[in-house]
Design brief:
2 helices, 56 residues, alpha+beta
C-alpha cells in the first residue's frame, strides 16, 4: 500500500521558494519574503490558511 505524504509549496516566478510540511512552509517569514506581504496564518483545525494584512 502506498504511503501518502501531504505537503505544500510556495512558488515565486515559476520557482520553488519553499516546500515541505505546512508548518515549516507556511510561516510568516516565508510569506513575507516570497510575496512581500504581512499576513496572518490561521487554522480551521484541519488545515492552515493565510490572511494577507498589508504589503511590506
Amino acid at each position: 500500500m502506498p504511503v501518502k505524504k501531504a505537503g505544500v509549496l510556495i512558488a515565486v516566478d515559476s520557482r520553488i521558494f519553499a516546500a515541505g510540511n505546512p508548518g515549516s512552509v507556511l510561516t510568516l517569514e516565508n510569506i513575507r519574503r516570497a510575496y512581500g506581504v504581512e499576513a496572518l496564518v490561521k487554522s480551521d483545525g484541519k488545515r492552515p490558511y493565510i490572511i494577507p494584512v498589508r504589503p511590506v
